[in-house]
Design goal:
The protein is of the alpha+beta class and about 300 residues long. About 40% of the residues lie in helices and about 15% in strands. Strands 1-2-3-5-4 form a 5-stranded antiparallel beta sheet, with helices on both faces. Strands 6-8-9 form a 3-stranded antiparallel beta sheet. A hairpin with a 7-residue loop joins strand 1 and strand 2. The termini are far apart.
Amino acid sequence: MPSPAKMHADELDIDAELVAGLVSDQFPRWAGLPVAWVDSAGTDNALHRLGDDMVVRLPRLPGAGDQVGFEQRWLPRLAPQLPLAVPEPLAAGEPGRGYGLPWGVYRWLEGDNAYDAPVTDLALAAVELGRFVAALRGLDATGAPKSFRSGPLDDRDDYANLAIRELGADGTLDADRATALWDETVRLPRWDGEPVWLHADLLPGNLLTEHGRLTAVIDFGGLGTGDPSVDMLPAWTLFSGESRRLFREAAEVDDTTWERGRGWGLRFGLGAVHYYRGGKNPVLAEVGRRALEGVLAAD
């Protein structure tokens, strides 16, 4: 299967030949294993399956170079304390063969992403994912880095308003409703608690399912500390109605954190639809559309 089309102007050239060469050079014990690109809607990393039970993860963007190091350092410490499976780092690769960033090898986790293979029991998944969020938030964050989504939402005001104007102009959303909700969001009190662990990118493509059951959380490139409201994203990208209520209950967040989380759902939806529509990334555009619909329809 060929590598996917590029989504970003500064995206790096990555293909199976490069991956096989890097593996052969740096990890001779795995030289000769088959390498195959893994279809993914992810935007920051390219995935290639290595043999039957490993996956190679390479940043696609120059600015994503630190993600592998975060995962390699922190996931082994966090994984034993989390209620769902997470990636297991096996080796850390170095730049080579013209590719200038760190990269990693991980154990392959069975299952399909929750966009392609949706959860069949949303109520159960809501409780399990809410408990995962609460467990992650409760772990010792001493020395942890900040997440890329650690800052307050009002720092993202300019792009949000641009997206609202342009999506409203073409009929994609109700601009008045979106503006009113965004204005309410940025007036909410900022998070003033101690830094807590966040996944920060809990989208359907970063959740694995088997036989309709949620089994794993992947892609910890946004791992770090910040405002726990960002991990309310699944409420708007995956759940609705009763399952949304169950997720909130299991995640154990207060009212203001929940409202900021709704703001994150709006901000994610605006960005995903505005940036990825037109074929750049149909999956993320669709997930963004779902988030916008859920956020704008909620009381």
